[in-house]
Structure formats: C-alpha cells, structure tokens
C-alpha cells in the first residue's frame, strides 16, 4: 500500500525541475552580460593578428647578420612589423622592419618566401631578437616570432 502511494506521488519533481531551470537561466544571463560588458567577443587588438611562421638564420662575422624569413602563413604589411633586439653589442632597442636590408617598402606586403637581413649590430652572439606585429587600428602589438643566440 505504501509502495503505491510513492509511485503516484510526484510532487517533489516540480520543485527540482524549477530550481534547475532557474540556475540555468541565471548562468545564461550572467554569461551574456559578461560577454557584453567585458567585450569578450571582439579581439583585443582591434583586428585579428596575422598567423605566420618565421625562421631565423644567424651568421657570425663582422658584422654579424641575422636573416629572417617568412616561411608560411598570412601576408603582413611591412609597415606593421618591427624587431626588438636585446643583448647585442651596439643595436639594442626597437628597429623598424622596413629599414632592414632587403625589406620592402612600408606599404607593401611580406609574403611567404620574403627575407630580410638584420646586420646593424657588430655582435649578436648574446642577443635575443623578437619579431613583432603592431595593429594599425589600436596600436597594440604582439610577438610573432623570437630568436635567441646559440
């Protein structure tokens, strides 16, 4: 007799379903508000950063030279690239990519197979070089590739 009463009594199902639905709606509203107010939907650079692979070929000499080659990926405006050098004997700091040997003009694009040579330092044996892209819209930059002396 007691078993029949429990089979037909389903009054506890309604509050459990109600609580689950209220929690789901709260989570959905919180996620929507966070996306809107914190601007998760758009990129932090104002536009998508290029995806590209670069290689570095170091040759010691007088002066040392470092050849940077765009191996594959998106084409990139030359004026939006710059390199940062640290640990070199005479060329520490930020250098405009278009001023490097073999670099195209600022308005042209760097595509797969393009090469430039950095030879502004007399000694790169302890240097670290990073290739960076600067967003033309927001001015923010990201590192695309890096090289450290062997």
Can you put this structure into words, describing what you see?
The protein is α+β, with helices and mostly antiparallel strands. The chain has a domain of 97 residues: Immunoglobulin-like, CATH 2.60.40. 22% of the residues lie in helices and 33% in strands. Strands 5-4-8-9 form a four-stranded antiparallel sheet, with no helix packed on it. Strand 8 and strand 9 form a beta hairpin. The longest helix has 26 residues. It starts with a helix and ends with a strand. The model has no long low-confidence stretch (mean pLDDT 83).
Q: Under CATH, the topology of the domain at 52-148 is which? A: Immunoglobulin-like
Give the helix tally: 2
Arrangement of strands in the largest sheet: 5-4-8-9
What structural class do helix, strand and pairing data support? alpha+beta
In angstroms, what separates the terminal alpha carbons?
A: 84 Å
Overall pLDDT score: 83
Radius of gyration: 28 Å
Shape: elongated
Strand content: 25-35%
- Named at the architecture level, the CATH assignment of the domain at 52-148 is Sandwich
Helix content: 10-25%
Low-confidence stretches: none
Biggest sheet, open or closed, and with what strands and sense? 4 strands, antiparallel
CATH class of the domain at 52-148: Mainly Beta
H/E element order: HHEEEEEEEEE
Instruction: Give the strand tally.
Output: 9
Domain Archaeal Type IV pilin N-terminal: 11-89
InterPro entries: Flagellin/pilin_N_arc, Pilin_N_archaeal
Organism: Haloarcula marismortui (strain ATCC 43049 / DSM 3752 / JCM 8966 / VKM B-1809)
Pfam families: Pilin_N (PF07790)
């Amino acid at each position: 007799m007691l078993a029949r009463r429990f089979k037909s009594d389903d009054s506890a199902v309604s509050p459990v379903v109600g609580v689950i639905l209220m929690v789901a709606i709260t989570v959905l509203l919180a996620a929507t508000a966070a996306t809107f107010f914190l601007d998760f939907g758009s990129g932090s650079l104002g536009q998508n950063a290029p995806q590209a692979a670069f290689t570095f070929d170091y040759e010691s000499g007088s002066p040392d030279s470092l050849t940077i080659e765009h191996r594959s990926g998106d084409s990139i405006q030359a004026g939006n690239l710059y390199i940062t050098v640290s640990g070199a004997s005479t060329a520490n700091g930020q250098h405009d990519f278009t001023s490097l040997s073999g670099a195209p003009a600022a308005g042209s694009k760097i595509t797969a197979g393009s090469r430039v040579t950095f030879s502004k330092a007399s000694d790169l044996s302890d240097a670290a070089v990073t290739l960076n892209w600067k967003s033309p819209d927001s001015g923010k930059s990201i590192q695309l590739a890096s090289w450290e002396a062997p």
